[in-house]
Every structure is written in structure tokens, then in C-alpha cells.
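Q: A reviewer asked whether we had any structural model of the full assembly, not just the individual parts. We don't, so I'm hoping you can provide one. Inputs are below.
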Amino acid sequence: MNQPDMPIVEGPNCPLPITDHGTIVIGHGSGGQMTHDLIRGVFQSRLGNAILDTANDAASITDTPPGEQLVVSTDAHIVSPLFFAGGDIGRLAVCGTVNDVAMLGAEPRFLTATFILEEGFSIHELELIVDSFAQACQEAGVKLIAADTKVTEKGKSDKLFISTTGFGWAKSSLRIGGEQAKPGDSVIISGSVGNHGISVAEARGNLGFSSQVRSDTAPLNGLVKALLAADLNVHVLRDPTRGGLATTLVEIARQSKVNIELDEQSIPVDKPVRKTCELLGLDPLYLANEGKLILILPENQAEEALRIMRGSPYGEHSQVIGRVSDPSRGQVWLKTPFGTTRVLEMLAGEMLPRIC
Amino acid sequence: MSETPQNLRDATLTKAIMAEIRRITTQPWNIMEICGGQTHAIMQYGLDQLLPSEITLIHGPGCPVCVTSLQSIEQALQIAARPDVIFTTFGDMLRVPGNHADLFTARSQGADVRVVYSPLDSLKIATANPDKQVVFFAIGFETTAPTIASTILSARKAGINNFSILPANVLVPPAMHAILSNPANRVQGFLAAGHVCAVMGYHEYPPIAGQYQIPIVVTGFEPVDLATGILMTIQQLEAGQHTVSNAYPRFVTLEGNLVAQKMISDVFEPVDRQWRGIGTIPLSGLDLRPEYARFNALTRFELADTPLSESPLCIAGKVLSGVAKPFECPAFGKECVPAHPLGAPMVSSEGACAAYYRYHRTRE
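A: Here is a predicted structure for the entire assembly that you could use as a starting point for your response.
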């Protein structure tokens, strides 16, 4: 060992325990001093608020809006790698749950979260992720009111998993859901599809080239709030995440027992996403999105909805992409630019690139 | 990334070519597109809906995962299960069923199975994991063979000894012979696969066209390419001709890519090979030449013989040789769906059954 500046101190003195770790160690999950230090240093300093700071084992919500219904959603977030162009697991964990609450027409207000940390995970990376989590909370206007950390032995988890639960309130009169699509309704998407799927595939090193595509991870509650404020007769709101636009629309068609007809040319797909898909044999309609919503509402309100969406953050490129046609067992049809049609199915399994 | 010229997807131009096809067609004709990529494009754009009812498109055996033999898949599963092995493969191969399991199952049971986009990535994995054996599943047609050959050459040059392949490549022209000599054959004209011809040229085809009196048209993958290929085939059929012509001249020449061909012939030699559902086709596969035998996983690992059992419901063989359409299979869309395939053509997006399932089911 060539460390001339380090005095070698041996003898009858008591070694001090190391307290300043650069990585997560099992002691961070002990529930003792190290756990407290981690919570205070990494989490509370970034996410603290009056409710969280009470530091009790549970949070109480005292300002429940009268006459409204509580909407709750929960979601576990596992993504590899943790950072990708346009986002990271922290932003994803907030937006994913905020969006699920918002899709029932509710205004998301509170989150709870569990952070499952793997022994050996970098505390610096954890701080970056919690920063991003906090920033997304602020953007979405939600507060973290209860949280938990657990540490697993190395190899028993993968760096960091985050599970979040979201709470929001919606007017009790609202009837928004996947089963509400009606013949004659218009189908609107809030922007281009497939960006998140390509961004994560690239971050995994699966593309072998740089696609310049950024994930669309974003909170959509502002967009939803603007739509509801206009008193539109919203039938369905759904965010097309895993499985993509096609799978989500098939779910809606089946739930509502209607056929949906899409116009392929009007579905927005960014050019780099389209090029990457062509190269790899992927279909953008089946790639995940984390900042897009599908809106279904009566055709005579579509124009007004588009105007509102295009004026809201994350809705600038909103498009009418199709219509709900007739009652049926629930199929989604795509009209190609050639005047031909094909049926869209749910994603069968993991999407796999083709060979030649 | 090369970009597809937009005019090759021009709906007006495509429809104009289709109108010409309708104008000249006087009787029923059966045309086979060999390549699964063409099947996929035809279904994706719904081009078959634009053809006159006299013309039937028959989907050929050109789906690489579909024709990879059950024996090769069982060998792959055995090799992948070894704790000292990292098994690398094109993604499509993961869901193709063997006797009872697929490579996804193997992975869930602890096998280290990795998807690569190019066989060359396997060499990087081999270099990074010197204590492991890295085995690449060498499947595909003449299109994947040159990069696999170049990977073998690089491995030899760099002295990478923990890399080998499971050889399963197959060749198109012998399959065309097999289809045309089948007494049940219905194919009257061929759309030859554009990418395969980009590598191999099309000098192999005139003897086939002459022997079986059948027109062969080298065809690309875009709507205008496909419509043009079909038009040129119908023109020949209606005129009673049977020559080889090229509807894909922007990528294909008569002699093909000579560098790629030399690489294939330096590393590989033709051998008889099993095609799944079809049977053994003479000299239809590529195996490593003796001087490269040390890169053959089959000589590197000792494998047990496993009895092979196909689903009794699946008629993949008939579908792949053009004798039956996917919806003529009793299991189609019932026991056999993309999420739970009984046969390989339901797995890959290039497989005829999956293409039919995704794009061609009748409206309810």
C-alpha cells in the first residue's frame, strides 16, 4: 500500500465506527440511528412538510373536501436503469401514481411512498432521485405525507424500488371510467406516443445507437383539471402506459363494449421514435408512455377539448385520433393511409425486436 | 439510420399500381411471398385487401424463428441452462416453444439468457466475462449469415476462446425447391425476398424458374415495392412467361454483395437441415467449416438427446409450406394465440399466424 500520508495507528485505541457511508449498508435498515440519519439527511430535507414532519407512524388528513369522493391508487415502480433520458425512477414514481389518480377525474393531493434500497446502492444517486421525486411532487402539487424505507441484502433487490400510493378527491357526481365510452364519441390523445418506451430501451443499451428520444414522464393532473374546469362531459380518461396506446384502447373497447376506429395517419409519433421503431421492428402503438392521456368524450365537445388541451402543459400536440363507432364485443380498428383496415390486439408479452 | 423514402409509402401510387393489377388480371393466381417481413408489411398496410379477388397471397417459410427446428431449440435450452454459460440470442427467439419450455422459461429458472441485436455484441459479452462460455444462437437466413461469419472471424482474430455458436442458419433457394416439388403445391409465382437477394444476388433463381416454369420477382418491403413485385409477377403469369426479374433494383444486383458471400463461404458450408414443421431439406442449412469447428457449441458441450414432441394441434408445417392458411388451423385464435403460441408462426411478428392474428381477423 502506497499511502505515505496516512499515519498507521495501531495499538490500544478504540476504532470509531464509520458513519459517513457513500453507499447504503444494512445498518441503514436497522430502524436505529443510521435509519434516522438517512431519513433526515436524504428524505426529510427534500420532502418535508407539516404533515410528514410530525414524524408519527401514520399521517392524518384533516381537510377532506366535503361532498367529494376519495380516489386512491397504488403503484410499484421498478425500472432499469434508474436514470434515462427525460426522467428517472423518482419522477416516474410520482407521475405514475399522480396520473392514475387524475384519470378518475380526481385532483391528486397526497402521496405515500416506500423506498426499498439494496445494500451497496449509492447514496449520491439516491439523493439525485429523491431530488427529482421532490421536484415532481412540487410540479404536480402533491405532498408526501407518509413514507418508509427498507434495506435488503445485496442481490435481494435491484438498487432501488419505489412504491407510491396517491390520494385525491373528485366531485361525487363524476362518472369517468374505461366503461363509459359511447358510440359517437371522439378519441383524443394528448401528444406523440412511444417516447418513454424508446428512451428506456436506449438507456438499457438495447438500441446500440443514440435515438435522441426523451421519455415523456410528466404529471397530467394540470391537464385533467383544465378539462374538468370547462365542464366537458368527459367519458373516459386513461394514461396509456405499459402496453401502449393500442393495448389501452383495447381495454377501453372491451370495458365499454364498443368498437373503436382509429385513423393511423392522425396518431402523432415523433420522427426519431418512428425511425427507431422501423429499424428494430417495434410498433410505437405498443410502446409505453408516462406523460400522455387518452380522452374520450362526445364528438361535439372534441373541438373545445382540443383547444383546452393544446393550451395546457403536456397537451400541446393533442390530436383527435379516432372515434367510438358501434356497440360490440370490443375491437379496435386502425384505418391505414391505404384505405385498408386492420384490427389492433393487446400486447401479447414483452415486445421483442425482430431479426432481419 | 437510413430513412425510407416517403414516396414508397405513397397511397395514391400504391393504389394506382393495384388498379393496373386489377386491369390485367383475367384468372385466379396464387403467389407466395417468401419472406416473413413481406408478410408482415402486407398485413400491416392491408395490401391484400387492395388486390383483386382472383389473386391469393400465400405466406412462405421466410420467418427465421418459425423454421428453426425443435431439436435446435431443445439444444439451446440445454446449453442455456448450464451455469457456466451466457446464452445470447435475437429477441424473437425467446418465446418460441420447445417441447415444454421456451428461453423465457429458462431465464426465469436462472439461466443467463441475453437478447442481442447483433452477434458481434456476444463477443463484447465474452470479453467482459472471461470465466463464462458465451454461446450465440445462430439463426436466420442468408441475411444474418454474413454478420455471424464476421463474428466468428473476429473471435478467431482476437483469440476469444470462450465464444461459440449454435449453428441453425438456413438457406432460401433449397426451400423454394422443396415447396415447388411438393405434390400439394399451389404456388404459381414467387416474390423473392429482397434482403436475401441484397446479400446473395439473384443468380440462383433462373434455374428454379426454368425447372418449375414459374416466375420469380425480387421484391422489397414497402407498399410500392410490394405492389410492383406483385404487378410484375401477374404480368408474367398472364403472358405465360417464367423468368426472373428484379422489382427491387435500388438494393439488389444480379451478383449481390460479393464480400458478404465470401465471408459466408469462408466460414460456413451447406449441410442438410431440419425445418420445423417441414422436415429435412437437402443442403438447406449452414454449418461451420471444419477449420472453425472449435466455435461450434455442439462440439464444445456434451448434450443429451431429448425426444421431440410437437403440439398435435398445430399445422405450422402446412402453413409454412403454403398448403394451408393460418385460419384453417383448428387451434388458430383459440388454443394458439400470440400470448400462448403452440407453434412458432404465432410467435414472431413475421410469422404468418401472428400476422394473421394481429392484422387479418374478420370484423365482428
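A: Points you may want to mention in the reply: Residues 115 and 149 of chain A are 5 Å apart (CA to CA). The mean pLDDT of chain A is 90.
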